Amino acid sequence: MKRILTLAAAAAALACGSNNTSNAAVSHNNPGTGTNTLKVVGSVGAISTPTTTTPSTTFSVIVTDGAGATVNGATVTVLNSSVPDGVVNLTQATGGSTYTGTVASYPSGDFRLNVVKGTDNVQGVVVGGVGMHTINAPALNGTVTAGQPLDVTWTTPAVAKQVSIQTRDLPTTLAPDTGDFTISGAQNPARISQRVIITRNNEVEAAGGLLGSGLSVSYANRIDPYTVQ
């Protein structure tokens, strides 16, 4: 009987570990392939506010050659299963500018970047999506005690590579995406209109691009305002 219970406990622990791994955004990353002739720096990001129920997402990709010159006329796409037609086609407003695109939502799932210019390419670069988080504490329009540690908590739809937390009195601070961070009492002084901004992100280097190539994704949410007194 004891052996059966031990095996059951081990199986449960293994299952738990497996779920944790699959829920990590970085476990979905793929560096892709390419000709190592282009430098491609891409980003996907959205910012939510208390008055924004469906934040728009901005896609931005800078494409340059080995000499640092902008590559014009490339075909730049980001694939994601939750956007219309499953693809966002990025374009340049003018020659020499960044390739950009937007969608009127924050897509779930992962993002796959392809850049092709003639025989030069960077393709199949996948960054795992971090999902839209909700800040549970502090509460919007709530009141917290000044000079005391403040627990900030949020949801983790997928475990991001890292999270940044900032308030009007706490400089941007990086932390693991555990869903909890404590602001010290010294950084929680009295303030009538305080705010907290939590940005969760993930990134991957592009194996088929020149040094510095990569793709990142981020989602920012905030509580603004709350009172510290």
Chart the SSEs and their pairings.
Elements lengths: L1 H21 L10 E2 L4 E9 L9 E8 L10 E5 L7 E6 L6 E5 L7 E7 L2 E8 L7 E3 L5 E2 L5 E5 L7 E6 L5 E3 L4 E4 L7 E15 L8 E15 L1
Parallel strand pairs: 2-16, 10-16
Antiparallel strand pairs: 1-8, 2-3, 3-6, 4-5, 4-7, 5-6, 7-8, 9-11, 11-14, 12-13, 12-15, 15-16
Architecture overview:
With 229 residues, this protein is mainly beta. It folds into 2 domains: 29-130 and 204-219, Immunoglobulin-like (Sandwich), CATH 2.60.40; 135-200 and 224-228, Immunoglobulin-like. The protein is 9% helix and 45% strand. The chain is built from 1 helix and 16 strands. The strands form 2 sheets. Strands 1, 2, 3, 4, 5, 6, 7, 8, 10, 12, 13, 15 and 16 form a 13-stranded mixed sheet that branches. Strands 9-11-14 form a 3-stranded antiparallel sheet, with no helix packed on it. The longest helix has 21 residues, at 2-22. The radius of gyration is 21 Å and the shape is elongated. It starts with a helix and ends with a strand. The model is unreliable at 1-20 (pLDDT under 50).
- Tally the helices: 1
Q: Can you tell me the residue ranges where pLDDT is under 50 for at least 5 consecutive residues? A: 1-20
Please name the CATH topology of the largest domain.
Answer: Immunoglobulin-like
For the terminal residues, how far apart are their CA atoms?
57 Å
Query: Could you state the order of secondary-structure elements as H and E?
Result: HEEEEEEEEEEEEEEEE
Largest sheet: 13 strands, mixed
The averaged pLDDT comes out at 91
Give me the oligomer status.
Answer: single chain
- Bin the helical content: under 10%
The count of β-strands is 16
How many domain regions?
A: 2
Radius of gyration: 21 Å
Q: What is the structural class? A: mainly beta
- What is the CATH architecture descriptor of the largest domain? Sandwich
- What portion of residues belong to β-strands? 35-45%
Q: What is the general shape?
A: elongated
